Amino acid sequence: MAMRQTPLTCSGHTRPVVDLAFSGITPYGYFLISACKDGKPMLRQGDTGDWIGTFLGHKGAVWGATLNTDATKAATAAADFTAKVWDAVSGDEVLSLAHKHIVKTVNFTQDSNCLLTGGNDKLLRLYDLSNPDAAPQEISGHTSAIKKALWCNDDKQILSAAEDKTIRLWDRSSMEEVKTLTFDTSVSSMEYVADGQILVITYGKTIAFYNALSLELIKTVEAPASINSASLHPEKDFFVAGGDDFKLYKFDYSTKEELESYKGHFGPVHCVRFSPDGELYASGSEDGTLRLWQTAVGKTYGLWKCVLPEDLGTESAEQLYASTPEIKA
Amino acid sequence: MATPVPVLRLPKGPDPNSRGFDPNSPRFIALCRTSISSSAASESDSEQLQKEQHARSVLREGFLRCLLSMTNKKVQFQMYENVKVEATFGASDIDVLNFQVSDLHTPIGVQKEALIRCQDVISFTFDI
């Protein structure tokens, strides 16, 4: 009995959603943060998409957002030339870090003590959060705006992708460039999978997988349309991708076969990420929404409820699904 | 003809009147900074701070021992809205958010098993 994927739409943002990130699994479940051009990043419960709170304070579009592993802290990068650190439990702004240009990307180390930022001033900055008044360490080298920067290799190294069509690997202690990858076109997204040291990169219609330590190419997969973001499943059996044709694609990682594709968004997909338990993936789009998609369609998880064939006569799927979204007064 | 996967409800959207981060959520109560921070006097004086910390430990231990000795005893709870109820105390959860009680005598009858929300309780008494 074939089941059709029912995406869960998370509304609330009023402008395109440009970045999203999941936390690790905490005693309270896992969480999702979304960066939006409306300047108001939101925190949601990861498995249901329920809104928890909005981080208020930025005065411009938020380009990047991240959570630390236990979802106690959040960091955001914005067009108001600041990166901010937030208490993700109370929603309070904890730190505002002034930059000289639009900040595009933020990333915590595993111990949450150091924040990496990057943006249009072409510099990578390392902020010691236990000593926030101290000047950050700066790494220069990129010749164009930095789009994404990530800690890797147990926080001993940094990976950065910029408009100069390069991805560079830096050593944290020496602050020196270790390796560079050059492309014909600007990389649209980058994801680091610590377990297995895999780097997922997208450019044009290509999703490429690299060894994160050696920067050696593992494989490339071509998608039917221009891809803006891709994410590898924690168990590395699937990966998902989304881009300019508004669709989400799911591929088999070993065979590179396209398994499923879904329409749903009303605009290009800007970001897609698997949840830490791999049970769902979230996508953010130009249409201002986030959508949650099941990895195993039909499985009971979060708000999705498995209905056995014998129940289908009594319990109409339409009845359950056709409720209007509730807005808490 | 594939059937769409049924959903229990749609994800909850933002509250138009607040920025969220519900202070009554279990996560907020468990993780937010203690509502009672150390007194101003002890902030600067480490000896004073030690004394204060010791006093806090004594009070905390006393409270926990009190909960232990209450087990299976009849306890009277004084609650808000002039509510006085009696029940047999079972246990408290780790964050002292709820008390599990049995035979809760209420104005509308006896509830065999119940959870009492701790924030609704003003005080409670029992015979040792």
Structure commentary:
The complex is a heterodimer of chains A (329) and B (128). Chain A has 329 residues and is an all-beta fold. Helix content of chain A is 2%, strand content 47%. Chain A has two domains: 17-187, YVTN repeat-like/Quinoprotein amine dehydrogenase (Methylamine Dehydrogenase, Chain H); 189-306, 7 Propeller (Methylamine Dehydrogenase, Chain H), CATH 2.130.10. Chain A is built from one helix and 29 strands. In chain A, the strands form seven sheets. Chain A has a four-stranded antiparallel beta sheet with strand order 2-29-28-27, with no helix packed on it. A four-stranded antiparallel beta sheet of chain A has the order 3-4-5-6, with no helix packed on it. Chain A starts with a strand and ends in an 8-residue tail after the last helix. Chain B has 128 residues and is α+β, with helices and mostly antiparallel strands. Chain B has a domain at 73-126: Roll (SH3 type barrels), CATH 2.30.30.100. Chain B is built from three helices and six strands. Chain B has helices spanning 26-31, 40-44, 46-70, and strands at 3-4, 74-79, 83-92, 98-106, 109-117, 121-126. In chain B, strands 5-4-3-2-6 form a five-stranded antiparallel beta sheet. Chain B is flat, with a radius of gyration of 21 Å. The termini of chain B are far apart. The chains are: A mainly beta (329), B alpha+beta (128). Strand 1 of chain A pairs parallel with strand 1 (3-4) of chain B, so a sheet runs across the interface.
Structure summarized in a few sentences:
The complex is a heterodimer of chains A (329) and B (128). Chain A is an all-beta fold. Chain A is 2% helix and 47% strand.
Largest interface: A-B, 48 and 27 residues
Work out the radius of gyration of chain B: 21 Å
Q: Helical amount among residues of chain A, as a percent range?
A: under 10%
Please trace the helix and strand order of chain A, writing H or E for each element. Answer: EEEEEEEEEEEEEEEEEEEEEEEEEEEEEH
- Average pLDDT, all residues of chain A: 93
Largest sheet of chain B: 5 strands, antiparallel
Calculate Rg of chain A over CA atoms. 19 Å
Show unreliable segments of chain B. none
- Indicate the mean pLDDT of chain B: 89
Sheet with most strands: strand arrangement of chain A: 2-29-28-27
Pfam families (chain A): WD40
InterPro entries (chain A): WD40/YVTN_repeat-like_dom_sf, WD40_PAC1, WD40_repeat_dom_sf, WD40_rpt
WD repeats (chain A): 55-96, 96-137, 139-180, 262-294
Protein name (chain A): Serine-threonine kinase receptor-associated protein
